Amino acid sequence: MKKYIILTLLITSACFAQKTSLYCIGDSTMANKKDPDKNPEHGWAQVLQPFFNENITVINKAVNGRSTRSFINEKRWDSIYSKLKKGDYVFIEFGHNDQKIEDSTRYTNPHTAYRYNLIRFVKESREKGAIPILLTSISRRNFNEKGVLVPTHGDYPLETRLVAQEYNVPFIDLEYYTELLEQSYGPEKSKQLHLHFKAGENGFYDKDKADDTHLSLLGANKIAEIVINQIKLSKDVSLKNLKNGIK
Predict the structure, then answer these.
(1) What pTM did the predictor assign?
(2) Torsion-angle region of 35 (φ positive above 0: left; ψ -120 to 50: alpha; else: beta)
(3) Contact 208, 201 (CB under 8 A)
(4) Do residues 203 and 38 lie in contact, with contact meaning Cβ atoms separated by under 8 Å?
(5) pLDDT tens digit string along 138-170?
(6) Which one, of 180, 211, 181, lies nearest residue 194 by Cα?
(7) Rounded to whole angstroms, how far apart are CA atoms 136 and 31?
(8) Cα–Cα distances in Å, from 77 out to 84, 92, 173, 178, 209?
(9) 22 φ, ψ (degrees, to nearest 5)
(10) Residue span of the signal peptide, if any (predicted)?
């Protein structure tokens, strides 16, 4: 009987040992939203867990309105860093709020502060034996009168690409793939990916809503699917455990 108990404990311990945490840090395009059953807005990391099996635990720490600067200054990164362990993963997607040049608590120069904040996330994740993954910001639905999708993120995606290349970080060019997504839906139908409602059309909004940055449930799921597919396609050996955790 003792042998069976010991064997059971060993198997149980092994199962627990296989569990991997996937931390998500970023802004409102990733973040969990309150009252998800009624709220039409969703962050793409909010819908990520169902794509993984029980061996991957998604811990979504993205927060509305945060830039790399404010995420660090509010000690949000410190609280994650203190819990990181070997084999964990960290999705890093910032940029929308780093652009807020009118706000000194959030704005970062893409070529200096933003770049070095990304480098800090990468280096400190690796210090703990965790694997950072850099993602460019999702594209906004910003079609001009000719139906051309116009970029809005300036040099922030470029710096993300450069940091990923320089520091050999697994990378998902989410700006590129979400541009393809927006373009595939087109100027009108792409409203379905975001938050477009007439007053009274949705109980959550009492006025007209036309938000081309944040995501509907459809948009969030489509972007989560993009992320999952890019992980599957990646040849980076450091993503093996994450790939194995996909359903």
Answers:
(1) 0.92
(2) left
(3) no
(4) yes
(5) 999 999 999 999 999 999 999 999 999 999 999
(6) 211
(7) 15
(8) 10, 11, 23, 26, 32
(9) -115, 105
(10) 1-19
